[in-house]
Design a protein that fits this description.
With 393 residues, this protein is mostly helical. It is 68% helix and 5% strand. It folds into 2 domains: 228 residues, no CATH class; 138 residues, Periplasmic binding protein-like II (D-Maltodextrin-Binding Protein, domain 2), CATH 3.40.190.10. Helix 9 runs antiparallel to helix 11 and helix 9 runs antiparallel to helix 13.
């Protein structure tokens, strides 16, 4: 009976073009956009040929030199960098000899040392929107990282000023320059303690896949509530199925859909963008299954608590968006305040994302065991509530 219920749901879903678009085409499209817009952040940017970018440096000081060095070293396969004065740079932009101009303002280094906000201007060729986005995203990523360092250093400095540490005050400039040098390393790095860094493409591929996995569970929720409203669930129970079998069948259907969805998205990102999901492969399978189980349980949880289809869609969408933000799915986790990082641990998104990131970093399958246990526990809790609270009629 359980398998019959699951197969019935799969047949209904296969005929729902809107649902299929949400489950497969939408995440694939978003990953395509992210992959194009952020292609400068990963090593083998083969989709965009190397293109000319010119820099105007009004500062001529150490921090400006560090910024330029980062661009030359980390993006040498993407940017063909030259340095010019502003007039020549503008002429190159107009004649398409440069696709973008990066202008480093005067007092760039001085303002950084004083903890002030700094702004690097990017002028781009409107006809080259993708390349312009790459340059703008690269500069923005660097400045965001630098901003975190500035704020951290300001707090650090305030503490030492209060302590009247004279030795520190003598070496203030040297210390802050050391901090900024450390920040100028891998601009898109998930953790400072890993064997491998996780690129922005890997980071958001995992984040978006997990988010859409939760959204796919909402498709099953909609089907359940519609069937409850039109008395279909009552007829299934009348045909001999128990409430437990009914929910188990619905959950199995969600698990199968989740497996298909994740398989397609992992293969798509691997082939289209060369995303390295880590190893061993069975580790990816294990964390994926645990994520799918937690997602299916989440769907049952929402279905049990919502009294109507509208309420279910509202509740589910809100919770998924909150989970995504808390887990660093919108803003990288290392930029979030410490209390939000703590809260992220109670979201299925972060437990799944963290498991994928560990495999991407090559730390070994034993490190994802805690994530798997938590995801399974979350799925069981969600399912328990679903079984207890769900109304057949």
């Amino acid at each position: 009976m359980i398998f019959h219920i699951a197969i019935k749901d799969l047949k209904i879903l296969s005929k729902d073009r809107k649902a299929l678009m949400l489950l497969l085409l939408m995440p694939a499209l978003i990953m395509l956009i992210l992959g194009t817009a952020l292609s400068s952040y990963f090593k083998d940017a083969k989709r965009i040929e190397k293109f000319p970018v010119t820099i105007v440096d009004y500062d001529k000081q150490k921090e400006a030199a560090t910024f330029i060095s980062v661009l030359k070293n980390y993006y040498k396969d993407t940017f063909e960098l030259t340095e010019n004065n502003e007039k020549d740079a503008s002429d190159k932009l107009k004649t398409n000899k440069a696709f973008a101009v990066i202008i480093i303002p005067q007092n760039f280094t001085q303002n950084i040392l004083k903890g002030k906000n700094v702004k690097v201007e990017v002028r781009s060729n409107t006809e080259e929107s993708i390349r312009s986005q790459i340059v703008e995203g690269t500069v923005e990523g660097y400045m965001n990282t630098l901003s975190v360092g500035i704020k951290g250093y300001a707090a650090f400095l305030d503490v030492f000023k209060l302590s009247d540490n004279k030795e520190f005050m003598k070496n203030e400039d040297a210390i802050v320059m050391g901090l900024m040098q450390n920040l100028s390393g891998d601009l898109v790095q998930y953790s400072e303690t890993t064997k491998k860094s996780v690129s922005s493409l890997q980071y958001y591929a995992a984040a978006m896949m997990v988010m859409f996995l939760l959204f796919s569970s909402m498709t099953g929720v909609s089907m359940m509530i519609e069937e409850r409203d039109n008395k279909t669930l009552g007829r299934i129970i009348g045909a001999g199925a128990s409430k437990l079998q009914l929910i188990a069948g619905k959950c199995l259907g969600l698990v199968i859909v989740g497996c298909i969805q994740m398989l397609i998205l992992i293969i798509f990102t691997r082939i289209a963008y060369g995303v390295d999901w880590g190893e061993p492969i069975y580790g990816i399978v294990i964390i994926s299954f645990c994520s799918i189980f937690a997602s299916a349980g989440f769907g049952m949880f929402v279905a049990a608590l919502a009294k109507s289809l509208k309420a279910a869609n509202g509740m589910g969408s809100t919770l998924i968006q909150v989970f995504t933000v808390l887990s660093g799915g919108m803003i990288p986790i290392y930029l979030l305040p410490s209390f939000l990082k703590t809260l992220s641990n109670i979201t299925p998104n972060w437990q799944a994302m963290d498991g994928y990131y560990k495999l991407m970093q090559g730390v070994g399958i034993s490190q994802i065991i805690p994530n798997c246990i938590i995801l399974i526990a979350m799925g069981l809790i969600f399912l328990s509530v679903g079984i207890k609270k769900f109304r057949i009629v």
